[in-house]
Amino acid sequence: MIIRSKAPLRLGLAGGGTDVAPYSDIYGGAILNATINLYAYATIEPLDNGKIILEAIDRKETLELKTEEHLPINGQLDLAKGIYNRLIKDYIKKPFSFKLTTYVDAPPGSGLGSSSTLVVAILGAFVEMFKLPFGEYDIAKLAWEIEREDLGMEGGKQDQYAATFGGVNFMEFFDGNKVIVNPLRIRPDILNELSYNIVLYYTQTSRFSSDIIKDQMKNVQEAKQSSIEATHNLKKQALWMKEAILKGELDKIGEILKFGWENKKLMAKGISNPEIDNIYKTAIQSGASGGKISGAGGGGFMFFYCPANTRFKVKEALEDLGGYVLPFEFNSTGLTTWRS
Q: pTM of the full predicted structure?
């Protein structure tokens, strides 16, 4: 018996960063995101040889360990080991032998939530294997706890919930770890037009978001008003974006993205740099009406809203800068598991 799972990556359309503590705990956060047809995959094959084999095909890493109750967290495929450790400790209660194979359609540091999505995919495969009685909120919350608390990785809360629920969601964060996911019913013609007009561009650079997020957290802790006010504005941006998409007022999206980008750069150091600024300027000069970096910033993917068939000119101009445009479609399905 083989267990498989997949979970979708996401585009953070508005409000990014308002889901990061302590801001979300103090002021409450709001994010609008949408999952796309890029995925993190996990396959579990039970073994009976007393070994645990972890293989990340995209990273070209393979690790063979003895079957134990606790696997060492030492920088080698720690996401998988952290999930195993938590499940053994709290739910399964005894070690077991297996091979876990993973693959992600986007590189680490891409800004599409790849690490958290991978955690959801792996966790989902184990939930399917052991028939654990978890709902969507349970899986997303446990994925967040493993990544943020058990493994100490900095970040927000949106990625785990986006990967688990799928679709277009308006998410609210408040009172510590409380999260409400509000699925939006978007007409198919609006979603098709939205995806047609968005150009998703990979800068050919990746980044470690932890330093940016730490600086963002520090600015809130030290009550730096310019950073806090910028984050307030990003929360407003999420509300404006939700209204524009629900009403089909897509001509407003470029300006909403531009407003968000100008405020996001004020949240922390390292969100933009001369290369990113040049990419953004080139897209706008080629016909885009607005855009943003995906994720915390510093590299990875950027995306731009390109009305009236300007997408083709923008695509050509951006690819002259050394990156590449990645075709995508929005998807409506979150974490999926099955048995082979």
A: 0.95
